[in-house]
Design brief:
D-Maltodextrin-Binding Protein, domain 2, two-stranded antiparallel sheet, alpha+beta
């Protein structure tokens, strides 16, 4: 027999659930009194006897205490009465220490909630995450990069997400629309953007000074980049050893495509009917990259596609300039180097890559309201300010990201605001219109180009034929 929609049981459970949620999520804080019993009786259409019965349950759970003559007050929680919200993060994130500080503050503000931070190895992060969720052990909230989000799209696993973006966070007014685009399907963001970074150039100020490069640096185009790299490369000695390189970048998929974008290069046509890898724009862009290594000898020859090659050389003061992100700049504080930021140069057009990170809710979580409360806090002014004050990673809130009063000597570079100049022309990996699997195939063939074993046009022609075959299928 079907129950009436407004049955006593449903009204009673709704009252108990809503009041408990307000306490656990901090809407009613320890020491505060809840509404009088007669008011609750009218709001939920329950007798005062039923209200008292529900309140007695919360007393038993250690959430409230009855103060004679005054009412019912939320108490300071015991460990046994706390909710544990699990949060997954990839283990090589540069923001973990700051996130731990934010979690500590959240737990102070919401004493009924305990955050359990789980670090998952970055290799196979999404596979591990989805397996945990499938077997019922998944985190309630998890961090995803734009790469991870693309993995979820391409593996058709977006159903693990319970779509959520806080109401107070509007892309145009409060943030940057392009960052939200990275985490949207259609026009709907499925996760809450938290941090972002465009690819920029970091340079060593001491090495530039030694090369007599003026403080007012001009880096408008590829010729400027090459000239700066030549000036700050300490040439080969008699035994052909390079003391320091003027420039370094990696062959990873979130670095070298910057040059393609700056030359109006593309991987495929917009409708994905055909590859255009062998276009003159792509040939010119990648030939420039190869020439930096082999012709001009201002950049080291790649030994692998990891970003670590460039960034470790930079921290050892063996490279004067690198392509990098605001994420990695968090590592510089532990090294005695003087550095600053420049927007990337242009060629046929201005362009760079944009990367980002967001927070998602597990669709199977039993604590979705608490998860939403936590995400709301992560993109609050307080949490975003902690992120900005303590590191270089750019917070998603525009007025925090652009607040110069939050910049700290020894943490932030002088030209931290270079990202504001870059954002209008930054593009995401999704804008490249190429799948992760296709990009991996491209990178596999490009190894022959980076090793100077094949001509640029030959490698790109081979990639085009492979991609056309795949697109045709």
């Amino acid at each position: 027999m079907l129950k009436r929609v407004n049955s006593f049981e449903e009204r009673y459970n709704r009252f108990l659930h809503e009041l408990k949620d307000e306490i656990l999520t901090g809407s009613i804080k320890p020491g505060e009194f809840i509404l009088p019993e007669n008011t609750l009786s009218k709001v939920y259409d329950l007798s005062r006897v039923s209200i008292r019965k529900a309140l007695a349950e919360l007393v038993e759970e250690g959430l409230i205490e009855k103060i004679p003559g005054k009412g019912n007050r939320v108490i300071v929680p015991l460990e046994t009465s706390k909710q544990t919200l699990s949060l997954a993060w990839f283990s090589d994130s540069y923001e973990i220490e700051i996130v731990e500080q934010i979690i500590d503050r959240f737990e102070q503000l919401y004493p009924f909630v305990k955050i359990n931070l789980e670090l998952i190895p970055s290799s196979n992060y999404i596979y591990t995450l989805t397996q945990m969720i499938e077997h019922g052990h998944g985190p309630d909230v998890f961090m995803v990069s734009d790469y991870h989000f693309r993995e979820l799209i391409e593996s058709e696993q977006l159903d693990i997400l319970d779509p959520f973006v806080p109401e107070h966070l509007e892309p145009v007014k409060d943030s940057y629309t392009k960052v939200f685009d990275m985490f949207s399907v259609g026009e709907k963001p499925l996760v809450t953007p938290f941090v972002f970074s465009p690819v920029v150039i970091c340079y060593n100020k001491k090495m530039f000074k030694e090369a007599n490069i003026p403080d007012s640096i001009q880096l408008q185009n590829w010729e400027d980049l090459l000239e700066l790299a030549r000036s700050s490369t300490k040439g080969a000695t008699d035994n052909q050893i390079i003391d320091q390189y003027g420039f370094c970048f990696s062959s990873s998929s979130n670095r070298y495509p910057v040059f393609l974008l700056q030359n109006n290069g593309k991987y495929v046509l917009e409708d994905r009917s055909e590859s255009v890898m062998d276009s003159s724009e792509n040939i010119e862009a990648l030939s420039f990259c190869v020439d930096l290594m082999y012709k001009h000898k201002v950049s080291p020859i790649f030994s692998h596609g990891s970003n670590e090659l460039a960034e470790h050389l930079f921290m050892r003061e063996r490279a004067a300039m690198i392509l990098t992100t605001y994420y990695f700049m968090n590592e510089f504080r532990d090294h005695n180097i003087s550095w600053d930021v420049l927007p990337v140069p242009a060629n046929k057009t201005q362009a760079t890559l944009l990367l980002g990170g967001a927070l998602g809710i597990n669709a199977d979580s039993q604590m979705k309201e608490t998860a939403k409360t936590f995400i709301n806090y992560m993109v609050s002014t307080e949490a975003q300010t902690m992120l900005k004050r303590n590191g270089c990673t750019i917070p998603i809130l525009r007025y925090v990201a652009e607040d110069n009063y939050l910049l700290q000597p020894g943490i932030h570079p002088d030209n931290y605001n270079a990202f504001k100049e870059v954002m209008p022309y930054a593009q995401t990996m999704r804008d490249l219109n190429i799948t992760i699997e296709e990009m991996e195939r491209v990178e596999s063939e490009l190894h022959f180009l980076w090793a100077n074993m094949e001509k640029t046009e030959d490698v790109l022609k081979k990639i085009k034929l492979q991609m056309d075959d795949s697109l045709g299928k």
